[in-house]
Amino acid sequence: MLRFSFAPPPSKSYNLIIRIVAINKIHQLKGSDFNMSKATFLKYGFVVLFIGIFLLRAQKFISEPLSYLFSG
């Protein structure tokens, strides 16, 4: 039995949101903030990476119940 989800592919929208947030964060930085330590840079990088992976993994659990609701 085939089940179809009417939601758009979440990975594209999540990637877009993460890119917009990253671009906004870069634009907020002032000249002195670019002298960030390597540890701080890695910490922010891992946080962004973790959020991205979490959202990509969570989309499976979010889209399955939605497909059951809309499949009739």
UniProtKB/TrEMBL annotation:
The keyword Membrane applies. It comes from Enterococcus faecalis (Streptococcus faecalis). It comes from the Bacteria. This is Uncharacterized protein. Keywords: Membrane, Transmembrane, Transmembrane helix. The chain crosses the membrane at residues 41-58.
